[in-house]
Specification:
- The chain has about 325 residues and is of the alpha+beta class.
- It has one domain.
- It has helices at about 5-15, 30-50, 50-55, 65-85, 110-115, 155-160, 200-205, 220-230, 255-260, 265-275, and strands spanning about 120, 120-125, 130-135, 140-150, 170-175, 180, 230-235, 240-250, 290-295, 315-324.
- Strands 3-4-5-6-9-10-8-7 form an eight-stranded mixed beta barrel. The chain has a two-stranded antiparallel ribbon with strand order 1-2.
- Helix 6 links the parallel strand 4 (about 140-150) and strand 5 (about 170-175).
- Helix 2 crosses helix 3.
- The relative contact order is 0.15.
């Protein structure tokens, strides 16, 4: 197939992203009865199997908040930003060896700063233009529902903009001005078939395709992640498209999640050092053609649970894409 035809095929498939229905339909009387019956069964299940088991199944909504998910990372980014603002020539503070992240873009931002938040023609700064994505992995097409892009700023978690009910994606710049996009995954209950933003890709990676059971060992996940490398990812915003390929993919297991959170600002360097040959070593400083997507995952059958996290936040996934 010629390159032109390949591009046309990818563009045609990308159009499907705009057809993704995002609004939840009003529940009918029949569906209400089904839900009520299901809730009754969930209550009975809680009696026999316990709250923890039903939480893992998604029957009971886990008690979680966005602050619990990103609060520590946000505090570290806040401190890094303050260092960037105060460490000017003549300052008595120790000068950092690396460029610090920018604050949320202001209306008077320079073209250079604005470009840091772009992935091709797609704008990940604060915008009312929603973004959708399509992952084309072999014969599989996984569509990511549209989300509202917001860029990190101090107090963003308290504002509620990145809440579970806001359908938003939070982007920050790391130590070398590379874009890290945080998206919600998992689902709120067993009746939430669509799930949160990255739920469908999360299922593709974590579950056996024939029965939907979560995979047993990390090596199985690693094998799936290797199949992602080289796959097409199309990003769409209004009538603008960005065509990219996956160049790196890593799963951080439960026992290392806290360590990854401590390295939120230097996350690419940390991933490169701790997950050799994962592809992250290809990402250069100030590489504006790269977008790294981060979302949560569950523990696998063989793993021990990290008790400080909810069942849907046991692991972290990092997937890097470069413009094609």
């Amino acid at each position: 197939m010629s390159e032109e035809k390949q591009e046309q095929e990818i563009r045609f498939r990308a159009q499907k992203i705009s057809m993704k229905e995002r609004e939840r339909k009003h529940i009918s009387r029949r569906d209400f009865i089904k839900v009520a019956t299901g809730l009754g069964l969930a209550g009975a299940g809680a009696y026999y199997f316990g709250k923890e088991t039903l939480t893992q199944l998604g029957v009971i909504r886990p008690e979680q908040s966005t602050e619990g998910f990103f609060n520590e990372e946000s505090e570290r980014l806040s401190r890094a930003t303050q260092v960037a603002e105060t460490s000017q020539p003549g300052s008595t503070l120790e000068q950092p060896n690396i460029k610090q992240p920018e604050n949320t873009p202001e209306p008077t931002e320079t073209p250079e700063l604005s470009f840091n938040w772009r992935f091709g023609d797609i704008d990940f700064s604060n915008s009312n233009e929603q973004i959708g994505m399509g992952y084309f992995i072999g014969d599989e097409e996984i569509l990511v529902p549209y989300f509202t892009p917001i860029s990190w700023y101090e107090g963003v978690l308290q504002s509620g903009e990145f809440g579970l009910d806001r359908n938003s994606g939070l982007t920050y710049l790391d130590e070398r001005n590379r874009k890290i996009l945080n998206l919600h995954s998992g689902r709120l209950s067993i009746f939430d078939q669509e799930g949160l933003t990255m739920y469908q890709l999360q299922r593709y990676i974590e579950e056996y395709p024939d029965n939907g059971v979560i995979r047993y060992a990390p090596r199985e996940i690693d094998e799936v992640l290797r199949t992602l490398i080289g796959s097409d990812v199309v990003v769409k915003q209004e009538n603008k498209f960005a065509y990219s390929k996956i160049i790196a993919a890593v799963r951080v297991p439960p026992e290392r999640v806290i360590e990854s959170r401590n390295n939120v600002y230097t996350i690419v360097s940390w991933l490169t050092e701790n997950f050799r040959d994962s592809g992250f070593e290809q990402i250069r400083p100030n590489d504006r053609d790269v977008l790294i997507t981060k979302f949560c995952g569950r523990k696998l059958g063989i793993e021990r649970e990290e008790t400080r996290e909810t069942p849907w936040r046991q692991a972290r996934f990092f997937i890097a894409k470069r413009l094609a």
